Amino acid sequence: MAQRGQPIVGIDVGSSKTCALIGYASETGNLEVAGLGVGESKGWRKGVIVNLDAVVLAIKKAVEVAESAAGVPVDSAYVGVGGTHVRGVNAQGSCLVANRARGVTQEDIRQAIRVAEAVALPPDRELLHVLPQEFLLDSQDGIRDPLGMVGTRLEANVHLITASTTAWQNVVTAVNKAGIEIPDSGTVFEALASAEASLSADERELGVGLIDLGAGSTDLVVYVRRTARYTASVPVGGDHFTNDIAVGLRTPIPEAEKMKRAWGHRDASQSEPGALEVPSVGERPSRVVSYAKLNEIIEPRALELIELIGIELERSGFIKQLGAGLVLAGGGARLGGFATLAELTLGLPVRVARPMGLERTGMDLADPAFCAVVGLVAYGKRMRLLQDSRNKGLVGKLWGALRGPTP
User: Fold this and answer.
1) Do residue 215 and residue 343 come from a single domain?
2) How far apart are CA 386 and CA 393, in angstroms?
3) Cα dihedral: 360, 364, 370, 371 (round 10)
């Protein structure tokens, strides 16, 4: 168990906000949150960094606030990576069991996974995660942990998640320039981080799609029989809703963001009485616009995003196996009516995520916008526990360490 003097830090560097969270592993196995820093993100466009200095400044400000609240310095952190440059692919590797009489060893498992991950990646791709799905031993399939089993040929099915080397390296560089190191395997696909914080083991077993609605894009990961089977990203996020409002109502971006959130407190499936005062651009006087007009702008974009999500779910091949439906995380999940609209359109149960496994936080983190940063800290906690286990000589932990943010 991580000691109280060893903080675990997560940094969610997003297009709209930058979050830094400092936590500790409690005696109950939950997360005790000590400090949170949230600041406006600048220097991003369409989910990629376009102004490195602005991103570095945003990270520094968020970290300083978290450090002040926690009373500890931050020198290392787990960092989220997302956007349309992230891609997932399934792969398979196999090897002969070195000693049939002894059964499958940790080295046999390592070798099968090494072969699976040794696919030829383009030079512009960075491997983020190797997530074991299941193993096959001779004619027996569906094995979750083959350690000690007797057989001749061991095969490993894995899910590989890669990112654009340029986009990934820019995030790493920004964090490093802010004076923070990233541990080995410390960059985490944000949808996996959100899943770490908001999905139950039963949901992963039954089949579930985690949809992380970010500002610049929407990331998703599909779990069936506990493991990640499919990951993808679509190029529509919360900023697209804001821009549509700004153009459609001829109002400044900050005012459009406020109106989007005002609409977000209402259910899009219901009638919208009342009106909004809409500030105009420049010296022009404000105007009054009905909620119905606002809905005319937002709902088509919401339906477009839901359609794109549906296409990816169909492409995964697992849409009929999502017994637990969909879970919406990220700041975009706060858009009122979106969950209802997704349920009606896709024919799947949909719920809005809330970070789980927190205690003595002293702050309000029960918001889908914080799922990723809470998940980064939870991921860091689990990786530290696995490292401690290896250091103590315990066996049977390797494939859990390799599988990424979902146990």
Assistant:
1) yes
2) 11
3) 50
Tell me if 53 is assigned to some domain.
no
What single-letter DSSP state applies at residue 368?
A: G
Q: Which of 192, 128, 124 is nearest to 164 (CA)?
A: 124
Do the domain assignments include residue 34?
A: no
CB crowding 24-34: b at 16 or more within 10 Å, else e: bbbeeebbbbb
Reduced to 3 states, what is the DSSP secondary structure of residue 191? helix
Alpha carbon distances (Å) from 306 to 55, 99, 190, 237: 30, 51, 19, 11
Domain count, the chain: 2
Segment 75-132, tens digit of pLDDT? 999 999 999 999 999 999 999 999 888 899 999 999 999 999 988 788 899 999 999 9
What angle separates helix 238-249 from helix 291-316, to the nearest 10 degrees?
150
| Domain presence at residue 178 | no
Between CA 230 and CA 222 the distance in angstroms is 5
- The CATH number of the domain holding residue 127 is 3.30.1490
Q: What pTM, to 2 d.p., does this model score?
A: 0.89
Structure tokens at 75: 């020198």
* Rg, Å, the chain Cα set: 22
Residues 108 and 215 in one domain: no
> Contact, 218 vs 233, CB < 8 A?
yes
List all residues 6 or more positions away from 24 whose beta carbon is below 8 Å from its beta carbon. Answer: 2, 4, 6, 7, 8, 31, 32, 34
Rounded to whole angstroms, how far apart are CA atoms 194 and 190?
A: 6
- Domain around 158: 87-162
Strand pairing category for 78-81 and 187-189? parallel
| Whether 153 and 218 share a structural domain | no
Per-residue pLDDT tens over the stretch 87-101: 999 999 999 999 888
Buried b (16+ CB within 10 A) or exposed e, 73-105: ebeebbbbbbbbbbebeebebebebeeeeeebb
CA–CA dist 385, 398 (Å, integer): 12
